[in-house]
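Q: What residues go here?
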């Protein structure tokens, strides 16, 4: 597999403790992505950079876990990575 061809552009938001009165889940997700645009961009860039550097999937997961343990705010929002479908799940508030 050519790791350089993988791009993580799909974002799935896990919505928690959202006090807004939105009735449509898609509108809520869009709002959260927009409100956290810098953080989302940094998370995507971190994963894309690791992929471009040809790190293995387990190495990328370990990198994210280590960053979480050291308190990195970008890593903390990464809830899951599905490399086979280029899917990055983020916890946005």
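A:
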């Amino acid at each position: 597999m050519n790791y350089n061809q993988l791009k993580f552009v799909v974002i799935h938001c896990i919505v928690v403790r959202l006090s807004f009165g939105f009735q449509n889940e898609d509108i809520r997700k869009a709002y959260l992505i927009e409100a956290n645009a810098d953080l989302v961009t940094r998370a995507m860039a971190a994963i894309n950079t690791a992929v471009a550097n040809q790190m293995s999937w387990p190495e990328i997961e370990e990198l994210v876990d280590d960053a979480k343990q050291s308190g990195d705010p970008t890593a903390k929002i990464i809830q899951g990575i599905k490399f086979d479908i280029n899917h990055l799940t983020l916890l946005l508030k």
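A: Context that may help when evaluating the design: The chain has four helices and three strands. The chain has one domain: 3-92.
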